Amino acid sequence: MSLVNKINSIKSRHDYEALIELIPYAKTIGVETSMVGESIVSSLRFMESNIGNPAIPALHGGVVAGFMENAALLHLMWEIELVNIPKIVDFSIDYLRPGQASTMYSKCDINRLGSRIALCNVTTWQEDINKPIAQARCHFLLSENKPI
Amino acid sequence: MDTNPYLEKICQTPHARKLNLKLVNAGERSITLKLPYSKEIIGDSVNNYIHGGAVSTAIDTACGAAIFQLQNNLRALATLDLRVDHIRPAAPGTDINIFAECYHLTHTIAFVRATAFTDDIGAPTATAVGSFIRSNKQFPVS
């Protein structure tokens, strides 16, 4: 079974945990998913191995970035009819507050969905949804041009 | 390699150790880090491409280290923003090198850019640009 078929079968079973199994990096940093209404929501419980500054302790900024990029990828995989696995084109993050030693949550919006490109905005927070710790925007390639 | 005595510490944080980041080289205001290939950081399990998040982490770490190298102390930093362009996927099984350079430093802000590549820096897998805010405190690594 091709990966796209596998994902479509996972989606029809609503087995979102099986989706994480397809992304080893997401397992490495400890991503968990749940359904809120009809959307898939990613969360990341605090893990010792995600620390970037041991004294505070604060999460590594790269973990926050990786979590958010992955949240956008999962959101796309869940929301749209896939032809290929979306490929990251660019990822841009603004850090608003340090990531503390607690659970992180994210919310993703697809601002533009074309046949080739998707533009996603992701917001991440910890205790207070009104105090985001980071915002990110990213483009994913959904399908490529054929050579002329 | 002419490194300041604190530089290694940035590769010793728990998450840098998890990704096995290694300091390869250092210049006056630049450093090269290696992100070794590992099954644990795969994002696309069909093509065995590394997840963009692991690349972003290595770039963020390398940029921080380049600033440490230029300022030659452990004055703490926080990333303000980082933009990564993923130019081409790295071939499965190959390590990724990150060359990061702090091209301007003010009292408050550090400006950085970085290039990710496998063998040839002229054929990058990703490029990045970012800015960091500098603190008056020391980076506290126990």
The CATH class assignment of chain A is: Alpha Beta
- CATH fold descriptor of chain A: Thiol Ester Dehydrase, Chain A
Sheet/helix structural class of chain B: alpha+beta
Instruction: Return Rg of chain A in Å.
Output: 16 Å
Assign the CATH superfamily of chain B: Hotdog Thioesterase
CATH names the topology of chain B as Thiol Ester Dehydrase, Chain A
Oligomer: heterodimer
The largest chain-to-chain contact, stated as pair and per-chain residue counts, equals: A-B, 41 and 40 residues
Point out poorly predicted stretches of chain B. none
Please outline the major beta sheet of chain A. 6 strands, antiparallel
Q: How many distinct beta strands of chain A?
A: 8
CATH architecture designation of chain A? Roll
Could you walk me through the main structural features you see in this protein, from its secondary elements to its overall organization?
The complex is a heterodimer of chains A (148) and B (142). Chain A has 148 residues and is α+β, with helices and mostly antiparallel strands. Chain A has a single domain, classed as Hotdog Thioesterase (Thiol Ester Dehydrase, Chain A). Chain A is built from four helices and eight strands, in the order αααββββαββββ. Chain A has helices spanning 3-13, 16-21, 24-29, 61-79; strands spanning 31-36, 39-44, 51-53, 58-59, 87-95, 104-113, 117-125, 132-141. In chain A, the strands form two sheets. Chain A has a six-stranded antiparallel beta sheet. A two-stranded antiparallel ribbon of chain A has the order 3-4. Chain A is globular and about 55 Å long. The two termini of chain A are 31 Å apart. The mean pLDDT of chain A is 92. By secondary structure, chain B is of the alpha+beta class. Chain B has a single domain (7-138), classed as Thiol Ester Dehydrase, Chain A (Roll), CATH 3.10.129. Chain B contains two helices and eight strands, in the order αββββαββββ. Chain B has a six-stranded antiparallel beta sheet, covered by helices on one side. A two-stranded antiparallel ribbon of chain B has the order 3-4. In chain B, 46% of the residues are buried. The model of chain B has no long low-confidence stretch (mean pLDDT 92).
